[in-house]
Amino acid sequence: MEKIKNFKELRIWQKGIEIVKDVYSMTKDFPKEELYGLTSQMRRSAISIPSNIAEGFKRFHDKEYKQFLHITLGSAAELETQIIISKELNFIDQEKLDNILEKLDHLAKMISSLLNKIQ
Q1: Which of 55, 65, 101, 105 is most exposed, with the fewest beta carbons within 10 Å of its own?
Q2: What is the pLDDT at residue 1?
Q3: Which residues in the chain come in under a pLDDT of 70?
Q4: Average pLDDT, the chain
Q5: Which CATH number does the domain housing residue 99 bear?
Q6: Looking at the domain assignment, is residue 2 inside a domain?
Q7: How many domains does the chain divide into?
Q8: d(C-alpha 90, C-alpha 119), whole Å
Q9: Domain, as residue range, for 80
Q10: How much is the pTM?
Q11: Domain assignment present for 81
Q12: Residue 1: inside a domain
């Protein structure tokens, strides 16, 4: 198995970028008064996911990498909560909710699997 040399090769990073694009698309039609509230918070949480994956990958020690992957899981849980709030406020429909939550769940499983391999 060939060693991954660049974080952009990681499937978890690629999935994170996909989630960022989904969140930006999802939030573009949120009420304008949410621009500095929920919209901004969701976008920051989403961006945090691939950003922490990339930063952790560039660390020299597995302990640091694992720490950043745990932070990524936290960001994913934060985003999941914000997405559920968006649905509760009727900013998104059930289909969008289900789609993004499925992607977040899949990403969390991939990260957990990677954490187990690093152990």
Answers
A1: 105
A2: 53
A3: 1-2
A4: 94
A5: 1.20.1440.60
A6: no
A7: 1
A8: 41
A9: 7-118
A10: 0.93
A11: yes
A12: no
Amino acid 51: pLDDT = 97
Instruction: For residues 4 and 66, give the distance between their C-alpha atoms in angstroms, rounded to a whole number.
Output: 16
User: What does the alpha-carbon distance between residue 92 and residue 90 come to, in Å, rounded to a whole number?
Assistant: 5
**Among 108, 117, 13, residue whose Cα is nearest residue 55:** 13
Cβ-contact 90, 12 below 8 angstroms: no
Distance of CA 102 to the CA centre of its chain: 12
57, 72 contact by CB (below 8 A)? no
Paired tokens of 114: 């990677």
CA distance 27 to 35: 9
Helices (H), the chain: 11-27, 38-57, 62-88, 94-118
Q: Which residue carries 């949120």 as its tokens?
A: 30
Asked if residues 56 and 5 have their Cβ atoms less than 8 Å apart, the reply is: no
